[in-house]
Task: structure prediction
Amino acid sequence: MSADKLNYAQVNRDVMRPLFNPTAAWWGGIGLVSIGFVIGLYCLGMQLVWGLGVAGYHPPVFWGVYITTFVFWVGIGHAGTLISAILFLTRSRWRTGIYRAAEAMTIFAVMTAALFPGIHVGRMWQAYWLFPYPNQRQLWQNFKSPLMWDVFAVSTYFTVSTVFFLIGLVPDIAAVRDNTRGLTKKLYGAMSLGWRGTDRQWRHYMAAYGFFAALATPLVLSVHSVVSWDFAMADTPGWHSTLFPPYFVAGAIFSGCAMVITLMLPLTKLFKLEAYIHTWHFEHLAKLCMFTGGILTFAYGTEYFVAWYSDNMYEWGIFVDRVVGKYWWVFAMMVACNCVIPLLWWFKKVRTSFVGLFVVSIIINIGMWFERFNIIASSLAHSFDPGSWVYYTPNHIEIGILIFSFAWFFLWFLLFVKIMPSVAIAEVKETLRPPLRHDEEAAAK
Amino acid sequence: MSSAHASATGAPVKAVYKHLDSLLQGIHDLQAAGHRDFTVLSPIPRHEIEEALYRGEPSPVRWFTLLGGIFGGTMVFSLASLTHANWPMIIPGGKPLVSIPPFLVITFEGTILWASLMTLVGLLLNCGLPFTNPPKQMEDPRFTNDCFGIVFTGTGADTSKIVHILEHSGAVEVTHG
Result:
């Protein structure tokens, strides 16, 4: 059904249809996720029992796959809030169909990222040491440390994004409640907080929603800036650059939008949501990727120019090593996946086809993981002292935990699409012409 | 159109509308008759409804956001400054203990975090959420689907007059009691 023929009741029916009834494709997804879980939990269990020695850390490379994966998932978590908050404030109508699932993706990506500082430091059960409270000597954390900033930035981003997401869900959960019975109705009734859509509720809701969007907007830009300072504040060659914040933010939006495309293309087909999520939604996302991908390519070039122009042999040394050293294949993957292959989207035929969008979006995410690995591992493996130069590659335990992160992320997403409306019911209705007696009378004449 | 006329006073009246313009007419007619004790229900937010009922008066939620932001920013900056002053790390070269640039990062985060949490508190308090015991007239599933509604809860008004106003405005169903 085309969008111009939609009415309010039809929106309720279409968006709620996929809820609660698992299909073969959904069970297939759960099956794949379960395999990833078994592999990942085995590897994680091994590391928890035997300690970090089972990971492939190779001194002085103590930041490897786990920090790479942390930055990767934080980056993925950028697109949802960008779409839901920034595009809300700029009144971009194309956000309506896709923002709910993109927001959910953000929450689950940050939940995945949040596992990794704990996995990285080994003793996960002591992760609470990160939070600001004094130790037994009344000594507080060092608030001048970028690692401490990161704790504040990621936890604030997660909290604000989650509140924004849940508040956005309330009217739609109320609609689901009114479409169910028995215990399910009670559960959705509790989750909807008794929402009835009264004038008083809508009035304060819309005011608060605008504030949440305004508050979340600077967070989109700040979180990955702060993550970039984890590196840029250190004097390690290849990291110590003022370019990092905009470079990281552009990369995060690039990978996040690509992940939205990867997730929502099959979701739209499987749940038959074509009336709400059109090809032009994906085309807009692809254009956002083309824009941020252009910034990223420019940043890669600028990095090399700055390293050469600095006339600092350590700085220039690492940048040359990344291209012709042992990590050349990581650099090649990064450039091919992030700079070259996405150029295919400049052809309208590619960026409006299912296969063209799906395949390139996956390639971008592979490239963005390699980009973080290129920054993190190669710099540590090729620092100031040639005597300390090593070649670190992840071992099976680290790869297993990387697989676990994908299983964990997709498990949450699969559960979400079955218990929550994947498209924002109330906001889609807002974009439709309201039912007017005047229109019906005019049509009858 | 189904209706139930009565001359009793004080009974809640529920009107269901299929059309937004009819609903706005109903709001206007009730206000013109001097009634204010009614609730409008809608599956979506509409500026026309808010304008008709609140005349552009801004929501007080904004004060919660502002106070939350001021509190969060002040608290986090104070936390960082006081803890550094309490256990000084003397760095040669005249670096200040309370240093603005690094503390601004967490001050910013604290401002946003507390502004958001207080916005949530403001939203819940002002909306009356959780709304645990709504009048049964509001529990109509059509109000989260494709219909608008008015629930009149005023006491002392002649129910039959209210029913008449709502029916006349274009409600497709008016019930009371």
Q: What stands out?
A: Chain B touches chain A through 64 residues (CB under 8 Å). Chain B has five helices and five strands. Chain B has a mean pLDDT of 88. The longest strand of chain B covers residues 13-17.
